[in-house]
Amino acid sequence: MSANYLEKTQILDFDNHTIQSLIAERDWQALDDYNKIGAAYSFVKDEIQFGYNRSDDISASEVLADGYGQCNTKGNLLMALLRALGIQCRFHGFTIEQQLQKGAIPAYVFWLAPKYIIHSWVEVLFDGVWINLEGFILDQDYLSSVQAKFSQDKGSFCGYGIATTCLENPQTEWTGKNTYIQKEGIHDDFGLYNSPDEFYSEKGTNLSGVKRWLYQSVIRHLINMNVNRLRKASNQSRGKNAQPQS
Fold this sequence. Notes:
Elements: H1 17-26, H2 33-47, E1 49-50, H3 60-66, E2 68-69, H4 71-84, E3 89-97, E4 116-126, E5 129-133, H5 140-149, E6 157-159, E7 162-164, E8 186-193, H6 196-203, H7 209-237
Parallel strand pairs: 1-2
Antiparallel strand pairs: 3-4, 3-8, 4-5, 6-7
Helix pairs in contact: 2-4, 3-4, 5-7
Pfam family, one: Transglut_core
Organism: Thalassotalea agarivorans
InterPro entries: Papain-like_cys_pep_sf, Transglutaminase-like
């Protein structure tokens, strides 16, 4: 067992009381490893909604408090939960093509998105094998709304936060195997890191300067409003109320 894949970091702050309380309330420590991974994965996938936080390098406890996240920030929370449960995990860094964000990011603010956007997935060690976890990015309500909007597209699809070879049935549920939802949009592969902290200290985050300020202060809220509108269609059809994001 490698201590590097279980350590606490500034981003992976799994000793935070909110994370520890969540684990205790759900009694996840009583589960076997397969179900520990599944419980943490399903929570991050569907109880943390798809949305855009203030930055990629925020702590796991901040993601939990926000109640929403995207690939990088949801990954921060998933890694923290896994390590808190004694499950080894590591960070794999990439960039993705900006086109897969079109639709989720409205056209009138799409100019802000870099051509190649920092992306990541979580790799978890289970039964001696490293498994790629990326399918947690989109909550089921949001994914269902996109599937309904593009019901004629059964196969390859790129946009709305998705890049997959099978929109009708993407590999997003934990079954002990790799899960993906944006893999087909990957451009650069930066390799493996012990933690997101190591990656961001080397590569930085997606935006800086004035663009970063605009994104944090105004634009991400507009993007989240758009994501919520898309999700609301699915919620209404299933008799649910969409939860607003701030």
